[in-house]
Amino acid sequence: MRRHATLLVLAMGLGACSVGPDFTRPDAELDTNWTLADDADLPSRVLQADLDERWWEGFGDPLLASLIHRATHENLDLLAAANRVEQSRAARRSVAAGQAPDLGVGAGYSRARNSQRGLSDPSGESGRAAYSLWQGGLDMAWELDLWGRVRREVEAADAGVQVSEETRRGVLLAVTAETARRYIELRGAQNALAITLQNLEIARRSLALNRTRLADGVATQLEVAEAAAQVASLESRLPPLRQREASLANALALLLALPPGALREALAAQEAPAIPTGPARVPLGLPSELAERRPDIRRAEAALHAATAEIGVAEGDFYPRITLSGDLGLQALQLNDLGWDARRFAVGPALSLPLFDGGRRRGTLELSKARQQEAAIAYRSTVLAAWHEVDDTLGACQAQQRRQASLDQAVEHARVALDNAERQYGQGTVDFLNVLSVQNALLANQAEQVDSATAAALALVDLYRALGGGWQALEGEGASGA
Fold first, then answer.
1. Which UniProt keywords apply (predicted)?
2. What pLDDT digit, counting tens, does each position of 229-280 carry?
3. How many domains does the chain have?
4. Partners of residue 131 on adjacent β-strands
C-alpha cells in the first residue's frame, strides 16, 4: 500500500507540471497618448477621453441605429462566424475528454468450435463439439497525463476557441461599420441627387426665361442654346445618381440578409435627408486600450497562445505514455451460469515508450516552434498595422473637418454670386454666359460640400472601427451568438 501511495503522489506531482514553454502575454508596445493635429483656427473634434462604445448613436439617426441593430442579428457572415465559434467549442470538448477515463459497457454472445489439433479448448470439449460463450462487463482506460501533453492540447484548444470568438467579434465590428458606411453613402447620394434636381429646376427656369427674352428680341439664339445645353447636362447626371442610390439600398439589404429592393421604400426620401454628421466631440479612449478593444489584435494574441501550447504537445510525444486499463465483467458457457462465480477482472498499467520514428517527432517539434515564431511576428505586424490605421484615420478625420468648413463658406459665397449674376442678367448688365459660369461654380461647390460631408462622416466611422469600438456594447445585447 505504501508503494502504491508513493507512486500515486509521484504521479500527481509530475502531473502538476507540463512540458513546453508557458505562454506569456506579449507587450503591445503602444504609446501613451494619441498624436492630434493642433489647429488654432479650427479646434479638433477628437479628444482623449473614454471611447463611446455605442458610437452609432452619436450620429443622432434612429434609422441608422435600427439598421445596425438588425444587421448584427441577421447578417449571414456574422451568423456563420458564430457557428464557427460553436464548432471550436465542440472541438475543445472533444480534446478535453482526453483528461478523463474512457468507460464502456459491453455484452456479447458467440457460438464457436475449436480445433482438435490447435490450442486448448476453454469449453473442455477438446475441439470435439461447438460451444456457446456468454459475457458482459465494464471496460476502462485512462492515460495518465504525467507530462502535461493532454493539458497542452486543451490549452491550445482553449486558445483556438478564443481565436474563433475574436474572429466573430471582428466580423461584428466590420458589420456595424459597413452598415454605417453604406447608410451614410446612401444619404450622400440622395443629397447629391437633390442638389442636381434643384439646379436642374434653376436651369429650366433660365431656359424658359431665355426663350421668352428671345421672343421679345432681347436675347440671342446662342443664349437659348447655352441654357438648353445646361439643362441637358444636368439631366444626364440624374440616371447615375439614381442607380447609385438603388445600389446602396441593395447593399444595405444584403447586410441585413434581405433580397434586392427590400429596403428601397424604407430608405427613400422625398426631400434631401440630412447626412449623419456624428457627435460634435469624438472621444478616442487611451492608446494602451487598443490591444483590448481591437478584435484582430486579440485574435493574433490567441493564435500566438495556441501556437505556444502546440510546442508542449509536440514535446510531450517524446515522453512515455502510461495508460491504466481495467476490465470487469462476467463470462460463462451457459446463460444461466452468469453469476458471481462467473466474474472476471483484469487491471494493470501499460507503458508506451517511443524509440525510433525516423525523425518524425523531431520534425513536428521544429515545425511547432517555427509556427510559434510566425505567430509572434504576425502579432507584432497586427499591432503595428492597427497603430498605423488609427493614425491614418485620425488624420483623415481632422482633414475632412477642415475641408468641410472651407466648402461651407465656398457654397455660401457661390449662392450670393449666383443671386447677383441673375439680377444683373435681368438688368442686362451681364450676358448669360456669366450666369452659367456662376451656376456651374455653385453646383460644383455644392457637390463637393456633399462629398465632403459624406467623407467626414465616413472618416469618423473608419476611426471608430480602427479604435475597435462597438462590439462590446453589442455583446451585451446578445448579438449573433454572443
1. Cell outer membrane, Lipoprotein, Membrane, Palmitate, Transmembrane, Transmembrane beta strand
2. 989 998 999 999 999 999 999 999 999 999 999 998 888 876 667 888 877 7
3. 1
4. 112
| Full domain range(s) for residue 465 | 17-104+147-320+362-476
Residue 186 belongs to a domain with what CATH number?
Answer: 1.20.1600.10
**What pLDDT does 202 receive?**
81
In a domain? residue 290: yes
Residue 6, domain member (yes or no): no
Q: Are strands 46-47 and 282-283 parallel, antiparallel or unpaired?
A: parallel
